[in-house]
Specification:
By secondary structure, the protein is α+β, with helices and mostly antiparallel strands. It is built from 18 helices and 44 strands. The strands form twelve sheets. The chain has an eight-stranded antiparallel β-sheet. A hairpin with a 2-residue loop joins strand 12 (about 250) and strand 13. Helix 4 (about 110-115) packs antiparallel against helix 5. The protein is globular and about 75 Å long.
Length: about 675
């Protein structure tokens, strides 16, 4: 079985496309996929269906990754970002075309030009078009020429180095001219904050895109992010596939996406989609792309933001709701056929909408603790399924998750006949999504989708930056952990068999009450059917999925009982209970003056040395992981008494990086005896 089959697509995705006119796409016989993870699997799935041979590339970290196993051939590269190596791999394997997915090289005009010079087709626009539309400044000029409204903006000379020019109206958005994905963006509310914002945005842009050019524009505080999917062919036709709403985002990083947009009327939809087609036609766009718009919730006006010259992460919600002559659409298939020179075989009138879809991005991050990136081994992985549910992922049991790449683990997409049905379906799907061994944002996503603000479509682009969701408490998860632990400790139940075998566990005679030591003692009385006095009865258990009736409410959880810990994923949220005797082995905690690594990552800067006097909040160093920077600050006024951080060094979660001793605190020399 090819590894691409591991990607669950549910029942909402057809096995054939309305545009299929032959088993293969023109002159494309071998396709190299210049990406990894779920998008590589997604592309390969369509290519295999079309009879196209696939080639994967991989680094040393990805030798056994799912996308490598899915391909017909695989080639090692030192980096996914190395243009020469990737082009060389395409030529060496006889690839007719390269699909870049998204991220990495997907919007690098130099990559497109190198492929063109090597005689290999890029599944995407030309280098010239990419250079224009891949840069926000040049894309803005194209939009103006096409008659598409753009966000009011300022030149860097207007704002100056301090941002104190009187003509500038704050807040403003400082953003990278190159790239996308929310990298290199900072919102500035006061002139005195501009210099720091510009420096940070430029540094991040240079790291992510190799270009630190910046733009400054009006910041719309109550905006909705609406984007239009377009596809253009080499015969001059550009069509739209309606729009998506991606307003639920944090710091310009999308969290939830849906289609169609829930807050626009038919007239606005018509104007937006036509504007997107006009812009793509103006630049001679070929392939799949997305024209992003900002809708001002206060005025109803929309502005062009940027164009993504590639397939986007959220393309599945478009595939879920768009029909062409009544059949589902496969955007990757359209990409491949257009790249092979085929014309789009239908007109705009054939493209219609059916129902509603919502996508949630599952990340390796602790969303309830500052969205800190997480790393580790995914011991157990459970993805949802069923009618209307699609999951694009590349994560399986026992797979290592590092900070070397983007933290997205997969995407859960739910379709329904209307928005509320789709929303409820996504809540249920996130209930069934679980990863143990490392923390993900699934519990946060579940709480967000279940909340009234998303239900009522009142979340704007800055809502998550203004509001904080409360983390689910551990009480119910503790009951589940204790009940399962007690049951597994019962020889009458387990014997020499696995209680999590496919037919569940046997129900034996209830034993006497037992005390389970977790983060605190918990009394499990199976004879009385209680845990800490709360009524708990078993419904089923198989493959680590436990279903209990807790105080009259059915609760489904994934439980992983190990020697020293019990992990429970309930409502998508991971809870880890460690036995007290294990904690005792760890020794005393570090003092309050210790500044620990809040995430595994790389030390970018060390700004202090031992003996330096620092003020509370002063930056001691900067840590980076998964393209996210975090300043490490002094906990109070004092003296730096230890510097363990080294610029460029890799550090694990919880490692001591600095030690600060408060001014006036007593210190004793160690007794040499």
């Amino acid at each position: 079985m090819r590894g691409a089959d591991m990607v669950s697509t549910g029942s909402m995705v057809s096995t054939s496309s309305m545009v299929s006119t032959s088993s293969t796409s023109g002159g494309i016989h071998t396709l190299l996929v210049a990406n990894r993870g779920e998008i590589a699997l997604r592309v390969m799935r369509t290519a295999h269906r079309m009879g196209i041979r696939t080639v994967a590339i991989h680094t040393d970290l990805d030798v056994t990754a799912p996308h490598v196993r899915a391909a017909d051939e695989a080639v090692r590269v030192g980096s996914y970002l190395d243009v020469d190596e990737v082009v060389g791999a395409a030529v060496a394997t006889g690839a007719d075309a390269v699909h870049p997915g998204y991220g990495f090289l997907s919007e690098r005009s130099a990559f497109a030009a190198a492929l063109e010079a090597a005689g290999v087709t890029l599944v995407g626009p030309s280098a010239s078009v990419m250079e224009q539309m891949g840069r926000k400044d040049r894309a803005r000029d194209v939009a103006v020429a096409a008659g598409v409204p753009v966000v009011p903006h300022y030149s860097l000379e207007d704002v100056g180095s301090t941002g104190s020019t009187t003509e500038v109206v704050y807040p403003v958005l400082v953003k990278a001219a190159a790239g996308g994905g929310g990298k290199g963006m900072r919102v500035v509310h006061r002139p005195e904050d501009l210099a720091e914002a510009r420096a940070a945005a430029a540094r991040e842009a240079a790291s992510a895109f190799g270009d630190d050019t910046l733009l400054v524009e009006k910041y719309v505080e109550r905006g909705r992010h609406v984007e239009v999917q377009v596809v253009g062919d080499t015969h001059g036709t550009v069509l739209h596939f309606f729009e998506r709403d991606c307003s639920t985002q944090r710091r310009h990083q999308k969290v939830l996406e849906e289609a169609p947009a829930p807050t626009i009327d038919a007239a606005t939809r018509a104007r937006m989609t036509q504007a997107a087609v006009d812009l793509a036609a103006q630049v001679g766009y070929v392939g799949a792309g997305t024209v992003e718009m900002l809708l001002d919730a206060d005025t109803g006006e929309f502005y062009f933001l940027e164009m993504n010259t590639r397939l986007q992460v959220e393309h599945p919600v478009t595939e879920a709701v768009v029909r062409v002559a009544g059949a589902p659409v496969d955007l990757v298939e359209l990409q491949l056929r257009v790249a092979a020179g085929e014309p789009l075989p239908f007109t705009q009138d054939a493209v219609t909408l059916a129902g509603h879809a919502v996508e949630a991005r599952v990340y390796a991050e602790d969303a309830f603790s500052g969205f800190l990136p997480q790393a580790g081994t995914a011991d157990l992985v459970r993805w949802p399924g069923g009618h209307g549910i699609r999951v694009d992922h590349a994560l399986e049991d026992g797979q290592a998750v590092s900070t070397a790449y983007d933290p997205m683990l997969g995407k859960v997409i739910a379709w329904g006949p209307d928005r509320e049905a789709a929303r409820r379906a996504l809540v249920r799907a996130l209930d069934e999504t679980a990863v143990t061994g490392l923390t993900t944002n699934t519990g946060f996503l579940r709480a967000l989708v279940a909340g009234g603000e998303f239900r009522d479509a009142t979340i704007d682009t800055a809502w998550l930056d203004r509001h904080r969701l409360d983390a689910p408490g551990p009480d119910e998860a503790r009951l589940v952990a204790a009940w399962t632990s007690a049951y597994l400790q019962d020889p009458a139940v387990t014997g020499d068999q696995d209680p999590f075998r496919s037919d569940g566990w046997r129900l034996g005679a209830p034993p006497a009450p037992v005390v389970v030591e977790l983060d605190r003692p918990v009394v499990v009385d199976r004879r009385a059917g209680t845990v800490d006095g709360v009524p708990v009865t078993a419904v089923s258990a198989a493959h680590h999925v436990v279903v209990l009736q807790v105080d009259g409410r059915r609760r489904r959880a994934v439980v992983d009982v190990q020697a020293h810990t019990v992990e429970v994923v309930l409502d998508g949220q991971r809870h880890v209970f460690t036995r007290p005797d294990v904690l005792a082995d760890h020794g005393p905690d570090l003092g309050d003056g210790s500044v620990l690594a809040p995430m595994p990552g790389t030390v970018l800067e060390v700004r202090v040395a031992e003996g330096a006097e620092v003020a509370a909040g002063q930056v001691l160093g900067v840590l980076e992981a998964m393209k996210m920077e975090m300043a490490l600050t002094a906990p109070y006024d004092g003296t730096v008494t230890a510097v363990d951080a080294v610029a460029g060094g890799q550090v694990p979660l919880g490692a001591r990086l600095f030690e600060v001793t408060a001014i006036g605190s007593d210190t004793e020399e160690e007794d040499p005896a």
